[in-house]
Amino acid sequence: MALLCTQSAFFLNHRSLPYQVSCSLSPSSKIRLLQLTKAQMPPVSATAASSQSGSSVESLADVGIFTATGEFVLFKDLWDQNEGVAVVALLRHFGCICCWELASALKEVKPKLDASGVKLIAVGVGPSEKARMLAERLPFPMDCLYADPDRKAYNLLGLYYGFGRTFFNRASTKVFSRFDSLKKVWKNYTITATPDDRSSVLQQGGMFVFKGNQLLYSRKDEGTGDHAPLDEVINISCSATSNA
């Protein structure tokens, strides 16, 4: 809980953010604000997977993002658009502790994906220099990490965005069962990896599996830390290569 509160406090104490939250609020007032907002949140949808329109998936191919070293690339150039299988993990922003946790978990399963010929692609919100902070400190393979500072892919795929989704969605309670993995990444974590555009912290992520330009799996994160089950992602992606 303390890890999420760190990011909540970080959000509440920046004047440049949308939602005119006063920095003059007392600590008790801020806590009350969080409680009121949480009470107004609707229940989480029971549907984990979400379908994407064919047009949005096709349009993703021409979306431009950046490597962790700052080079411009198109999505369609990241994997074979005919038969290549790719796991595309859209993280939140590079300063999100839950995204460091997910990146750590993805790194652990990467050997299994590699052995099956599945390409791992992780994309985060923020500039390339923030991506490098995560890659160097976690650490995480820099050749698998990309930056989408303008959230173009996120918008195209309709991933969730907003204050309530970020801090108070009931799906975020899943992180309570993952304290060990969060503590593990906390050792090297830095909040300075957060994008300078503070509105970026309101973006949620998602997980996708592609075979060529065909979408095999799609899941939107309902709230912060509500990650797709990696066993499910591995089974779908590795099965796709074995059936090629």
TrEMBL record:
It comes from the Eukaryota. Gene3D superfamilies: Glutaredoxin (3.40.30.10). Pfam families: AhpC-TSA_2. GO terms for cellular component: chloroplast. This is Thioredoxin-like protein AAED1, chloroplastic. It comes from Stephania japonica.
